[in-house]
Amino acid sequence: MEDVSAVEESKSLRIPVVYSTFNMMEENTVLTIQLKIKKPDHRLFLLIHNTKLPSFSDHLFYKYLKTVPMENGADTMEIVLLSKELAGPGRYFMGIGQFSDTFETNLMSNKEKRKEVNMSECVPLGTDYSLRFISDGVAYLNHTSVSWESDGIEVVTATRDLTVMYTSHLTSFGAGMFILPNTIDFNYVFANMAFIDNLTIYLTLIISLLFFIVLLIWARYKDKRDFMKLGGAPLPDNKVEDKYLYEVLVVTGNHKCAQTDSNVQFILSGDREETDIRTLADESRNTFRKDSVDDFVLAVPRPLGPLQFLRIWHDTSGSGSNASWFLSYVVFRDVQTGEKFEFINNRWLAVEMDDGQIERLIPVAGKEQKKEFNHLFLNTSNKNIADEHLWFSIFLRPHRSRFSRCQRVATCFALLFLSMLVDAMWYERVPDQPGTQGLSLGPFHLSPDQIAVVLIGNLIVFIPSFLIAFIFRKSGPKKLRKNRFVQAVRKTKMLHGDMSTEEEGSLLPHQEQQLQQQQESETSGNQPIIIERKEKKKKFTLPWWMFLVGWLLVLVCIGASIFFLLMYGIMFGNYKTTKWLTSLVISFFTSILFVEPVKIFLTTMVLSAICKKGDLDEDDADEDEEDPVLEQDERWLHPGGRKPTVHRQKLDDETLARLREQRRKEVEMWSILKEIFTYCIFLWIFLTLSYGNRDPNAYFLQMNLRQSFIHEGYLDDTDFTKVTNANRLWLYLQKGLLRNLQVGRHYNGDQPIYLRGYLNDQANRMMGYTIIRQIRVMPNTCQVPGKLRQFTENCASYTNIINEDEDDYCSHWSHPNPYTYNTTSCNIPEFKYTTANELEALAMWGQRDWYGGGGYVIRLNEEVTSIRTRLHLLQRNGWIDEYTRAVLIEFSVYNTQVNLFGLCLLIAEFTPGGGITPYFRFEGIRLLQHINTFAGFVITLQVAFVLFVIYFTLREIYYMYKQGFSYWRNYWSYAEVAILLACYTAILLYIFRHFATMDQLKVFEKTKGIGYMRMQFAALLDELYGYVVGFIVFVGTLKFIKLLRFNKRIGVLSATLSQCWDDLSGFLMAFFLCFFSFVAMFYLMLNKYLDGFYNFVTAVETCFSMMLGKFQFEEMKQISAFIPIMFFIFVLCNSWVLINLLLTLIIKSFTKVKYDLMNQPNEYEMVAFVWGRMQILLGMSGPTHTAPVVIKNDTVQNEADGMAQDPKTLHDFPNKVDKFLDHINNMYFDGKLDVSNKEVLKNSMYQGGSSYQGGDDDYERKF
Question: Where are the transmembrane segments (predicted)?
C-alpha cells in the first residue's frame, strides 16, 4: 500500500482535501479501494468524480468512512465499486477530506442537501493513511479467436470475497486480478520538473548514464586489446619446411597465483612420431595468465599419429609467484583431420606447491576422464562465471567470444534500467501480507497479486534483455577474419625471411604444385592420397546487420526506461524516491553477488553431474574465421620412421631443493608483508573507531556534573562527601540536590524560555526525571547473641541482594492490616516496593555491598517546591530508618553540543555498624555515533571492520583445517582466537547498545522528554564494549611481536621468553606463594584498622602498591610495633630478593640466546631477503634470477641439427686440436714427436712410438 502524508499535505491546501487518481480499464471491472487509516477516531469522507476534482456539489460517489465496516481482526477497510456504478472505463479522481468537529454528518445522507454543503466545512486532516486500488475483471476464453473476451457477461454485484455475474452463454470463464501500476499524472509531472525539487531522481539518472558512458569507453578499449589476442601464435621454433599443423590450446587454472612467466616447454608423443623439445611462447602477447586460454600453432614435418603422451615443464625463471604454474588442461587439435586430443592435468607445476615437481607426464584423456565431475565442474563453473554472468563477464569476458565487452555493457544497462522501471511501476502496490487466498509459510508470504506482478515484471525485463543478448551472441561478423592457421604459417615464414614469392591472398606454399600434381594424377588415372578431414557442423548465426538491431533495442530500452523513471521519480517525490532507490540498490547487489552466482553454481553442478558435456574448448573463434586452405604435401601421406628418442637431463635433487628453498622464502616474505599490511589497516580502522568512541569532552562533562551536585568543600550542608548520617542526607537532598536539578531563572530574573527540562547549568538536558531509590534489608537477617536478647531482638546485616526487603508498607514502615489497607497512610507510593523490571534497572556493586535493581522510589518529576514539600513529608514519616542500607540518586542527561550522555549516580550506603559511606560516579559516554558530518566515514570504517573480522576468521579456520592439532601448540594461535572472539563480542555489544539507546530515545520522543527512562543498560553495554575494545587494542598491539618476528631484536626477545619460561613458571609459583602469605597476614592484622585492608581483595591491591613503593608506613607504625618489622621483611623478600631473582633469570636466558645461534629464529634471514628484494624494486641492484632448468640432448637427431652449430666454434676446433697435440709433445715426448705428419703420429701412437728415442721404462713412465 502507498503511504499518504495527508496531515502535512492538507495543511498547505486552500481546500484541505487530498486527491488521488485511478483508472477503470474495461467494462465489468470491479474496483476495490483499500484504506488503512492510522488513527481510528476520525471524521473522514471520500468523494469520486471522473471528469474533474470532486466536491460536495458535483461528484459521482460519496462515502462517510466511519460507516465502512472493518473485517474481524483487520485494520484495513475496503470499498468495492462496479464500473457501472460510476461512469464506465476511464480515469477517475478521488478525494479524501475531514469534517470539522461541529459539522453534522447526517446532512450528507440526503444527496440534495449534500449539494448545499460548502467545502469550507472541511478541516486539515488529522491522520495519515495508506491507499491501494485493486482492479478485477471477468472474461471467457473464445476458442475461435483464442483470446479472453467479456461479451455476454455482466457483473451484478461484488464484495470482498465474492463476485456475482450474469452470462448469456455457458462457456468456460475465469476471473483475473491485475494490480494496476503506479499512475503518472503528466500535468503534475510537467508542472513540477524542477531540478532542485527532484534532486534524487535526476542525480540517479545522470550518474547512471555517466557510469554507462565511462564503462562503455573502457569496454571499447578492452575490446581492442582482446582483438589483438585472437588467432593462433606460431611456436617460435616452428620451421618453414614443416607443413603438418596442430592447434594447441593451453588452459591455465583459476587458482590464486596460477599464472607464470617461466619458459614452458614440452615434448608431444604419438603412435608414429615424437616431437623434439618445443617451446610455448609468444613475443607479442602475455601468455599463461590466470584463467586464460592461449592458442598456439605447432608445425611438425609429418603426422604424429594418434597422440598418446605429453611431457610438459617449465624452468622456474619467472619472478616471485610467477615462477609457478597451475596447468588445467591442454588440447591438441589436428588441423588437417579435425581430430582433437585432450591432456588433463589440473595440478601445480611448482616447487612450493603440490608435490614440488615442475614437470608432468600426462597421458591423453579418455572419454571417462573427460567426463569426470571434478574436471567438468571446475572448468565449466569458471567458464560460466566469466561468460554467462553478464556483469562479471564485462571484466572477465573470454577474448575468443563473439559477444564483445561493449555489447555486454549495453545489455547490462538495458537490463538495469528495465529492472528499475518495473520496480518503480509496482513500488508499494503489492500488499506485504497475503490476503485470504494468499499463502503464508513461516516468514515467507505469497499472494496472487505478488505472483502476477512478478510474472508481468519478468516478462517486461526478460524478453527485451534476452533478445538483445541473443542478437549480440548470434550475429556473425560482416567479414570473416583471416584463418589463424594461415596467419601463423605466414608469420613463421616472415620470421625466417621466406616471403619473397608469397603475397597476401595467394595460395599457401606448394599449393599450386599440389594442384598441379593432383591434375597430373587425375589425368593419369591415379587418385591422390588425401587425409580425411572431419567437417565440423557450423553453428546457427544471424546476419551481421542484426547487431544494429540489437543496438537499436538497447537505445529504445534505455531511453524509454529513463523517460518513465524520470516521470515516476517526480511523482514519488524525493523522500519516496530515496526509499525506492535504497530497496533497489539492495536487491540489485543481492542479485549480482548472490543470486546469479548461486544460479550458475547450481546449473553447472547439474550439467556436470548429468549432462557431462566434455567440449570445454568450443567457442566462437572457428565460426568467425575463414576455412583453412592447407596444402597436403605428399611427405605427410606416408608414416616415416620413428625419430631417435630425445634424451634430456633431469634437474638434480640439489638444484631442485635450492629452488624450493628460495621459492619458500619468497612465499614467506610476501605472506609476512601481506599479513603486516592487512593487519596494520585492520588495526588502524579499529583504533579509529575505538578512539572516535571516546571524547575529551567526557572528562569535562563529568567534572561539571560533579561540581554541580557534590559541592566538595562547601560548608552549607550541600557537600555530599560530608553526608555521615540521615539528617545530613535530608539536608543534602533539600539544599544540595534540588539546587541544580532544575533550571532556574536567568541572572537578570528572566524566565528560562525554551530550557524546560534542562539542569541549572542550562547546557545539559535531563533524560526523563530523577529518582531516589532506597534499598532496605529485611529484619532478623542476623542472630543476636543469647545473653543480649533481653536488650534487643532486632538484627539486620548487609542485604547481599538476597536479603532485600520487597514488602509494601504504610507510613513509618508499618505493615498494613485489613483495617488500614485502604487508608491514605498505607497508599503512599514511596512506601510501595517497585521491582527491577518496572524500573528497568540492573543490580550493582557499591563500596560496601551488592544492591538489586528494585527498591522504594521517590520520583522527582514535579516542580522544586512540590518536591521539597514531599521530601519534608517523607522525613516526618521516617522514610529513612535503621533498616535502610542504601539511598541511590539516579538520573541521566544529554549534552547536544558535544553529543554525550551523562550518567549520574550518588549512593549513601548505610553500614550496619552505623554511619554512612558516600559514593558517587559520573560518566560521560557517547551512544549516538552517526549524527555528524563524518557519519558516512564512520559507517564505511565499521563495514570494513566487519569484513576484516570475517576475513581473519576464514583465515584462521583454514589454518586450523590445514595444521590440525598442531595449530593449538602455538601460543599466538590463542591470541588470534582471543582477538576474533573479542571482535565478535564487540560487534554484538555495539549492536545491543545501539538498540538499547534507540529504545530509550523512543520513550523520550513519545513522552516529550518528561517520562521515565533509564540509560543504565545502555551504559553497562558501553562499559563492557570499552573493556572489550581495550582488550583488543592490547592484544592486537602485542601481536606485532609476532608480525615483526623476522626482526633480530624482536626475535631475541621472543626467544628469551621461550628459553626462560620453564624457570619463570617455577619462580612465579614461589613468588605468588610468598606474596599471598604476606597478604593473608596483613589482612588479618590490619583489617579492623586501615581502609586498605577491610577485605581480602583490597588487601591484595594494597600489597601490590607497597611493592611499588606506595604505602602508609606511619599509620601502620601507630597500630603496632610488630607491623613495621613484618613490613620490612615483606619489602626485603618481595622487592629485593624475588624481583632481583626474576631479573637474574631473564638476563641469564637473554645472554644464552644472544650467543647461541642455534636458538635464534631462522626468520632472521628474511631481513636480508626483503632488503634484497627492495633494492631490486628500487633499481639499486640487478635481479638475481633463478637458474633455469638446463635441457641437453645426448644424441644428435639428424644432420640438419648437427649443421646448426656455431660456425665460429667449428672453425676454431682444428687450431685447438693442434695446440693440444703440441702440449702433449712438449710434456711427455720432450718435443721429439712430429705432430705435423699424420702418418708419423699414427705410427708413434699405435706401433710403440718409434720416433721416441727413450727406453721402455721411460716411455711407460711418461704415459
Answer: 199-219, 409-427, 451-472, 542-568, 580-602, 672-692, 934-954, 974-992, 1024-1044, 1064-1086, 1119-1147
